[in-house]
Amino acid sequence: MCGFCGFSGEVLNRDEVIRAMTEKITHRGPDSEGYYLSEDIGCDSIAIGFRRLSIIDLEGGHQPIFNEDKSLVLVFNGEIYNYRTLRAELIEKGHVFSTESDSEVLLHGFEEWKEGLLTRLRGMFAFAIWDTASHSLFIARDYFGIKPMHYTLLPDRRIIFASEIKSMTAHPDFKCDFNENALDGYLSFQYSVPDETFFKNVYCLPPSHYLWYKNGEISVNRYWDPIFNPDESMSLEEAVEEIDRAFTDSVEAHRISDVEVGCFLSSGVDSSYVASYFAGQKAFTVGFDNGSHYNECEYAATLAKEVGIQHYTHIISDEEYWNSLRSVQYHMDQPLADPSCIALYFVSRLASQYVKVVLSGEGADELFGGYRIYHEPYSLAGYQKLPRWLRKALAAVASILPPVKGKSFIIRGSKSLEERFIGNAYLFNKREKERILKNIPATDPAKMVASIYEKTRGQDDVTRMQYLDINRWMVGDILLKADRMSMAHSLELRVPFLDREVFAVASRIPAKHRIAAGTTKYAMRLAAQKHIPKESANKPKLGFPVPIRVWLRQEKYYNIVKSEFLSPAAERFFNTGELIRLLDEHFKGKKDNSRKIWTIYMFLLWYNVYFPEK
Fold it and tell me: Is a pLDDT exceeding 60 seen at residue 614?
């Protein structure tokens, strides 16, 4: 696991600039650094910086790395789990290797197959290759977006690229301008909607895409798509066996390392399934001292004992959590309102004291149908047999009623899937955004996901919901926080569920085996039962529960947030009277506005970290 950055073209004190950019991401690779500055001058020159966290081939895996005639230069962040197989194939084709690293496999693989290399890879990756002969730059990102990659074009068509945006800010010609358009999407989704970022003209390279840069021009292309093709003839028994076979193989591949590997462990089935392969090794859990709902340590400890894992825990105090918020937002690069990212920050800190690599359970919900909302197509099925006009009329009546049981069911049952499911983290609708935003146009969130829904037209509703979450929620929230919070502590986080071979199985499982008997991830839970107790496999999802709702009804934290809601930054972007109304309603127990409050509060904290004088 590493980080890299670079830029094309001339700049005063080029060597000092690339070192300053690289220093900004030292946390991604504290073990060593490396640089490449081309001998060319003008627009055909390149400068590349690299920070390394040594995991595989500790002695020989230094970067940047070159091919035999030094015509290609590579920097790479991630791990390739099938690199030994590819290495053997490339040696048969006549390639000569000087190291045992997976990095060199990418270099020779690119020589042999160019873009075709990407679909041969099994792993997580972002890498850049500079061709010294053609003065062209090739950048690629893994299938699901596990590893980050950002880029921008300067007005004179020079490119700057980096694993983290903060690295770009050290370039003297990078204009650090706030992108107001990103705030609109953020309020609806609690994260910046890819490919856009909160920095004007800075973009994230989408998952399963590659980029070519030459002569000041950029072209971006997709090389793979996580499309589901359910096999309705697949039996439940076949699904369970295939899941377990593929996942066991994936975990073994993800454990390849020259350093010790541990795992994260909550009380849920995903991390428990992962942890079941770690007998005699280390697992890590955090919780809060706010009642059993917010503390999974005891559940995790029970499983750890049954599986035979060395278990390490940390209880996060209220003060510790709140004091970390600005540091977390700095490491995130962009505002993220998911409160669990701070819990992930602390469990990563805990794990980094003992190991350099951990496995985690991210991706299981998106691939196997794990979120409770995925059951909605089944729960609404009977009601939606009523004529649409009647359901719309009932919804109109229900909308003016006070909060009563069944109100949400009637309203949501009147809508099509595209209208009612905008993604897992959906918060503010267009009308609510118009009420709180000042001088920033509000967009209907449904329009922001329409193109993704279009690609799954004709498939069942559960599959369409999963595909949407894979392309938005998982990229913009789940994997972003996983990378940033682990890397903040120089910890490599691997996600064995997000493996191409595992997805190949998940994509074939019929919806009836994903959601069944009132249970999500049905087939996957049965597969997990081969390794963990039934009660652990069937435990409802909690997902790093954080007591935000409780804190915001305490005067101390109410006043902290209120102060930020009345700050100059809040005045610039929001109608602060509306912000205070949301806060007061929650504080007095009239409504649970905690998620909306937290989303705005996290944005304001982040803004003051990156734009303190604006």
Answer: no
